[in-house]
Design brief:
Length: about 210
């Protein structure tokens, strides 16, 4: 792909570095911005820059937030007896889109994967255990809404083992999501039903 402008080429390279954006799409986006007024382009770039400067992780659930505590954790109307444990922030968004769940969340930030050097200490599992253990915790049920993969099952087993003896109930989403599938790609109806039809999670050696 030949460019008459070095600035255009740099813009295309920047867009193409984003996931799912090829060079042809990157060129279309670049030319689209070129056709807009400088004010529109400045609003676009400022929105991205401000997001990156100011975005933070919720100090309670580790979701993305504009403030130290995210909107979900701060919402007094949410059912505080439920904590839905998910792998990533994208999973929170997917579950929220179902409108089937009104509890709280806890974002692990990944899954246990020894082959890639990811152990429990690299995730927010200790933070989850602390949330449940504190004296003023209202948590009565932990819902493991984790992708049904080998890594997901390993993570669910570990968390359940850590919560053994705790007064909280541990459940997992119903397997409407096929094994090996990613939670964020499940359709809203299937995911919503899986949350509603959750089942108790039992350790395999019980």
């Amino acid at each position: 792909m030949n460019f008459s402008s070095k600035l255009i080429e740099q813009s295309v390279e920047a867009f193409a570095s984003l996931p799912g954006i090829g060079r042809k799409t990157a060129l279309r986006l670049t030319l689209h911005l070129v056709g807009k007024s400088p004010e529109v382009t400045e609003q676009f770039t400022e929105a991205i820059s401000k997001m990156r400067r100011s975005i933070q992780h919720c100090t309670i659930c580790h979701n993305l937030s504009d403030e130290p505590i995210c909107n979900v954790c701060a919402d007094k109307r949410r059912d505080r007896s439920l904590i839905c444990v998910v792998e990533s922030i994208r999973d929170v968004m997917a579950i929220e889109d179902t409108s089937q769940y009104r509890g709280l969340y806890h974002v692990l930030g990944g899954l246990i994967n020894p082959l890639e050097g990811i152990g429990p200490s690299e995730l927010t599992i200790d933070s989850l255990l602390h949330r449940i253990a504190v004296s003023d915790s209202e948590a009565k049920e932990v819902i493991l809404a984790i992708s049904p993969t080998i890594e997901g099952d390993t993570t669910m087993f570990y968390i359940t083992k850590k919560l053994k003896g705790s007064p909280v109930k541990v459940s997992s989403i119903a397997r409407g999501v096929s094994f090996g599938g990613e939670l964020e790609y499940a359709d809203e109806v299937t995911l919503g039903r899986s949350i509603v039809a959750r089942v108790p999670y039992k350790l395999s050696n019980e």
